[in-house]
Amino acid sequence: MSHDQLPMTVPAEGLPARVRIHEVGARDGLQNEKTAVPTEVKAEFIRRLADAGLTTIEATSFVHPKWVPQLADAEQLFPMVSGLGGVRLPVLVPNLRGLDRALALGAREVAVFASATETFARANLNRTLDESLSVFEPVVRQARDAGAHVRGYVSMCFGDPWEGAVPLDQVVRVCRALRDMGCDELSLGDTIGVATPGHVRALLTGLNAAGVPTDVIGVHFHDTYGQALANTHAALLHGVSTVDASAGGLGGCPYAKSATGNLATEDLVWMLRGLGIDTGVDLGRLVATSTWMAGHLGRPSPSRTVRALSHEDTEEH
Ligand code: HMG
Ligand code: MG
Question: Which PROSITE patterns does the UniProt record give (predicted)?
Answer without folding.
Answer: PYR_CT
